[in-house]
Amino acid sequence: MMAQIIDGKSFAARLRLRIAADVVTLASRGITPGLAVVLVGEDPASQVYVRSKGRMTREVGMTSFEHRLPAETDQETLLALIAQLNADAAVNGILVQLPLPPHMDEAAVINAIAPDKDVDGFHILNVGRLATGQKAMVPCTPLGCLMLLRDHLGTLSGRNAVVIGRSNIVGKPMAQLLLRDSATVTVAHSRTADLPALCRQADILVAAVGRPNFVQGAWIKPGATVIDVGINRTEEGLVGDVHQASAMPVAGALTPVPGGVGPMTIACLLANTLTATRRAAGLPDPEGLTP
Ligand code: NAD
User: Fold this and answer.
1) pTM exceeds 0.85, yes or no
2) How far is the CA of 153 from the centre of ligand 1 (A)?
3) Distance of alpha carbon 123 from its chain centroid, rounded?
4) Active site includes 176?
5) All residues at 6 or more sequence positions from 161 whose CB lies less than 8 Å from its CB, including other chains
6) Most buried of 27, 40, 89, 134, CB within 10 angstroms?
7) Is 97 a catalytic residue?
8) How far apart are CA 107 and CA 37, in angstroms?
């Protein structure tokens, strides 16, 4: 039997419709969520991301503020812009597109964002809140993975989860979210011994490695749910971190690349902006959009 395809693209489209409906409800109270995206430099991939973030923000009825600064901008200027956005009541979410130019201190810049407007969930306070089970802003990509897993599996409680990758933006927050849902979590990385054997124990396997077709079908426990976070540009086009052809006959369910986790990331950015807006207005969190 072939794995069921977890259709992140259509899930994300439904999520955006839900968010748009909530934006209409907020409009009746005179509230319009606003998302500010700051891009420093001309990195082509970042430009594509920023453009599509702006378009999707407007599509759900939110206001998009875009700030493009030249690559040679000094850090003081960027920090001054962030301070201005922190103070602006029309801005509910602030995202500084990474990577920043090498002369900037990424952590200092991210930690200058007001934590409650930190819709990427990278501020040290949000990292700590997530790790200690407090109300946080949660990084968008792992939040999207969690939504797909819950939708497909129902409860994650007691399941063995292996996350391959320990980055601050995907692997670590993914592990925290799985732990919060009572999965038994192992984080694997480049120094892990016998990764295939470890993966074969996973009911839930999340691959966030950044290596094309890395996870082989023979590493997958039959029937496992596999979430492929990887986005790798190769001569054959966009491929994930999971070798899809060999994974398909073994896995129970699998996210495709493209059309799996990718579309969920921007949808969750909009979800986080909605959450931030509602919290700023003293309203309860939107149902199903937060962990
Ligand atoms: P990263 O480079 O920061 O981290 C990669 C991790 O993989 C590291 O922790 C490393 O220890 C681990 N790793 C590397 N080689 C390994 C090996 N041989 N065995 C086991 N582990 C190994 O990458 P990242 O930012 O976490 O992104 C991971 C992938 O996810 C990339 O392909 C990236 O493009 C993609 N990504 C997708 C989205 C999305 O929206 N779908 C968002 C962010 C990242």
Assistant:
1) yes
2) 24
3) 14
4) no
5) 175, 178, 183, 184, 185, 186, 202, 203, 204, 205, 206
6) 40
7) yes
8) 17
Mean pLDDT over each residue of the chain, to the nearest integer: 97
Q: Which two tokens stand for residue 222?
A: 């039959």
Q: Which two tokens stand for residue 128?
A: 């700590």
Instruction: Say what the pLDDT of residue 29 is.
Output: 96
Query: Pick the catalytic residue: 22, 118, 120, 181?
Result: 120
Q: Give all domains of the chain, ordered by start, each with its CATH number.
A: 31-115 (3.40.50.10860), 140-262 (3.40.50.720)
Distance CA 286, CA 117 (A): 16
Distance, CA of 247 to CA of 188 (rounded, Å):
19
Say which of 22, 53, 221, 244 is annotated catalytic.
53
Q: How confident is the model at residue 1 (pLDDT cuts 50, 70, 90)?
A: confident
| Contact indicator for 195, 209 with CB cutoff of 8 Å | no
Q: Give the separation between CA 269 and CA 71, rounded to whole angstroms.
A: 24
For residue range 63-117, what is the model confidence (pLDDT) as tens digits?
Answer: 999 999 999 999 999 999 999 999 999 999 999 999 999 999 999 999 999 999 9
Could you give the angle at the alpha carbon of 58 between the alpha carbons of 56 and 62, nearest 5°? 110
Q: What percent of the chain has pLDDT over 90?
A: 99
